[in-house]
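Sample entry as discussed:
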Amino acid sequence: MLNVLTQNSYGLGRRLILLAALLVVLAAGTLVPAADRTLPLAGLALAALIALVGTRQDRTEARRLQTPTLNQKPTFCDDIFAQEGNWVTMHHADSFTHRYLHADGNTLCETLLETHGDADQALALLRGPWSWWGRGHAREYSELRGNNTGQILVPGSFDGPATFDVISHPGTNRLTIRGRFHNVQDNVPIFPQHFVTRSHLRAEAGVLPFPFPQGTGWLGLRNQLEARLPETEATALQLTLA
């Protein structure tokens, strides 16, 4: 097992695009009968909120990333992940399994990505700037104390410590990549924590509902790892998936 710690402070971005999409969708919604409207209203409302309140948060991103709480004193909760509790499990496609603790307070959640590739390459991609972060971008990458790293991922709305484990399966090119939020603070007002957490996990798997972009998050990591497989292994993988 290889372990990497990344402390991320997430900023909110693409506000104008989201707001424009919201206005277009709401305008189109007035042209169809109410009985035929199947718009994800909660998602639309969240998009509007992100579009309208993100500016102030952007001004404080860099300051939060350098605070002692994030930079020097992360609080890890591995013992809680090993305990029973009000855990909610989510499955997205064949590659992703998520769970989160449905409770008051900060966010504790876990993502498991099943993929193929080289463990050292996966570790390097996690330790470095997250240029693979699908349909978003990373900025202000920095190397912190204790061989940790920090960066701001956009779009997003969380800040706090996260850990990532790369687990190899001997005799195969299979990898399990596990990411955990350890008491991470979400910065989306009004909406319940469990709704924000579920939206975050859907973003990691690239399956957020309209009007948010598809193919986000960890899909970029999976695609880069599988693209680097030797040609013979990649062909065998394609045959297996087919």
Q: What stands out?
A: The chain has a mean pLDDT of 71. Strands lie at 2-9, 87-92, 96-101, 107-116, 137-143, 149-154, 158-168, 174-186. Helices lie at 15-29, 41-65, 68-71, 78-81, 119-127, 193-205, 219-227, 231-241.
